[in-house]
Design a protein that fits this description.
441 residues; alpha+beta; Beta-lactamase; three-stranded antiparallel β-sheet; 29% helix; 15% strand; disordered N terminus
Amino acid sequence: MMRHMMLTGGAMLTLLGAAAPAQIARPAQPAPKATAARLPATQALFDSYVRSGKMPGIVAAIGRQGQSPVFISAGRTALAANAPAVGPDTLWRVYSMTKPVTAMAAMILIEEGKLGLDQPLSDIYPAYRQMRVLTNADTSLESRPATRPITIRNLLTHTAGLGYSITTKGPLLKEYERLGIVPFTANAQVEAAVRRVRPTSLQQFAERVATLPLIAEPGTKWSYSIGLDVMAAVVEKVSGMPFERFVQTRLFDPLKMNSSYWRVPASAANRLVTNYTFLGDQLVPVDPGATSVFLQAPSFPYGGAGLVMSARDYDRFLQMLQNGGTVDGVRVMKPETVKLAMSDLLPAGVRFAGVSGSTGGSGGGVPTGYGAGGSVTLADTPGGPGKGTYGWGGAAGTVAYVDPTRGVRGTIMVNYFPADRWPLKRDLAAALYQDMGAARR
């Protein structure tokens, strides 16, 4: 059920009911604003996106090494003409861009010696000691005993053999849905249906996942997964505090990320954009900001797709990575920990397979590995990101990356399904590096 929701506007309309087409509209003209003079090609690109009706609004935060970000924006939080203009503190559903945040929380515990990168998951949850692997994943649940343990590295790099409701097929997908292994939310209607069967806590979620067979032997295949959701449960258990509190106290508070939420408070609700899907070339609201499901508490904090954040906040997180663990003199991780997290952590012999852009990931156009919760380029892209660029995207179109070779970081916020409706990543890279080249001349 959930995997289709992110892929087609028609499927989304089925979930929302026949009344949805009546809400179709064209974007209003963007509110007047000052142009980001230092990034004229990027500003022009954003203005054209909104003017042509590709999206209601877009915000980016672009920063060079050691410098504050430049914010570029166009459009509004919704299609309505009276909707607020978007800006650095507008709130967006970042979905799978939650994964790098969860991964860095785990890396903090690895840095402190409370977890090991190659430690078996069964050390924390004995239920994972005797996992089984499907013998024909497309047609049955028949399985054999696994011969390798799932490790922390496997969870961080999607090599644990776990499935995902957005990619898994066949009988295993039905089991995931039956047991509520769907740590993702789109709107109140879908959430009400899934919540009836979903586990009510991270610990219950992790224990229930252990009862299901794997799609591959651990450590042998890259497959997009719920690994970072299980990782959130591990962080919670090992740290001895609720996962969301650990993230808040060890990352959000010291980095002054004041607009990052698992549940958007009423005081910030007016900053939350409406999420859309496409019916043909028309935008249709999926989750209106004023009544968003993200104003409700989730079943538990979804470590793989649960955060709502501002461009300013995600830039703070990327600054920390770019600076080797510090922002404004406050250190949350050691430089060597950040370097390890942003390196290729795939097990020997495993290659990053890439994913559909509609899931929020990126296959890239150059040789690519996978680090802690995000992809890592293994070569330079001519006119684009350099070797070692780390980042990931979200199911509603958001993008984030840190490019250590070029010394630049970027956060791009939009909210619509599917994420790959427009070639945003490609277009932005071309505009941004055009601006950078002009600045050097």
